[in-house]
Amino acid sequence: MRKAPHAVAALLLAAFLATSASAVRAPPALQAKQRRARAVLAQVNTLDIRFGKLVDAWDGARIELGASKRALAANELALGRAKRRSRIADAQLAQRLVAIYKGGGEPSLVEVITGASSLGDLIDRFEAATNIASYDRTLANRALRSQETLTAARVRLRATEQQRHATVTALAGERRQIGAMLTQRRRLLSSIQFEIAAAKRREAARQQALAAAARARLAEEQAAAAAAAKRAAALPTRTTPTTTTPTQTTTTEPTSTPTQPTTTATTATTATTATTATTATTTTTTTDTVPSTAPGAGHPEAASIALDYLGIPYRWGGDSPATGFDCSGLVMYVYAQLGIQLPHQAAAQYGYGVPVARDELQPGDLVFFDDLSHVGIYIGDGELVHAPQTGDVVKIATLAQFGTRYVGARRL
Q1: CA distances from 313 to 38, 120, 122, 206 (A)
Q2: DSSP string of 32-52?
Q3: pLDDT surpasses 90 at 203
Q4: How far is the CA of 324 from the CAs of 313, 314, 388, in angstroms?
Q5: DSSP H or E run through 149
Q6: pTM of whole model > 0.90?
Q7: What is the C-alpha to C-alpha distance for residues 86 and 243, in angstroms, rounded to an integer?
Q8: Region 233-258: what's the mean pLDDT?
């Protein structure tokens, strides 16, 4: 069955969750688990994205908080040095003032004038005394301003640190919450996956039992057919006296070959009388849903061959057990082993062979569904082998599962 492959979203559940509107559905319980798994997987993906964004934001906030802590530590160190310089400057200024007060420090104006040897010396001594006092005051003021600036910076840095710490704390709390939710969803998903796997194993065991029963049934039917043929061959041949008849009518059944599509059957009847040379011909046409003559024996061995490929994965466009099968690829591959070449399309395969009524199906007949978009090989007892859908495998199904989607059957 050629269908576009489904976009699958998680990679992990593709084999479990894929479905197709035109194929046989999984059992209801398995369908429910698959729907639940898809819903939980969507939740896991959403939470995973949210969790990733939170972790990224949390990491960024921690980096900013670390930078704030380092800046505050540097500020504290600089503030400590400023305080020490301020204390030293204050001490030096105090000592200068004490010395002046006691008269042993900065020279007085009288001392400067009387101690000068010339006018130039007088000016130099006065400027020196003034500069010493001014320098002491500058050092003290500078140290004080530095201390005040660093103190204000410390206030700002502490506020920034507190804000960033609160952000980190809030993000960490949300991270823990989302992480817990994500862990819970992942555990639930794992549990559902385990249940789906168990359901798949049960279905595989059921398929094995169906296959064993089908093989036994086919072997019994083939043995019965061989015995009947042997008995027929052993019967004595009856001879009848030869009589002269005016005319002998011969009827030939229409034949079909797997290489030429057959859509209609035409029967010609010729009546001849002994007294006239007039010939009358009557032609009747029937549809391919009700054959005018009984179809031949077909190829029941195709059913046994098809059973050999149970469990081969479905693959769109696949026509080999090495790579997988789609529905028409499976039919084409099975019949190729019987020397019959078929096209790789369900609708095209419907044009081969002769039509078969549903109540006259025999193993090996091709059965068609879904407006000729799906095909399988009938194996008897109301069952068929087919390649259903992406994510599934070649398996046994029943005609009843398809309901009104059944289209018809052909015998090659």
Answers
A1: 21, 113, 113, 17
A2: HHHHHHHHHHHHHHHHHHHHH
A3: no
A4: 5, 5, 12
A5: helix 119-234
A6: no
A7: 149
A8: 51
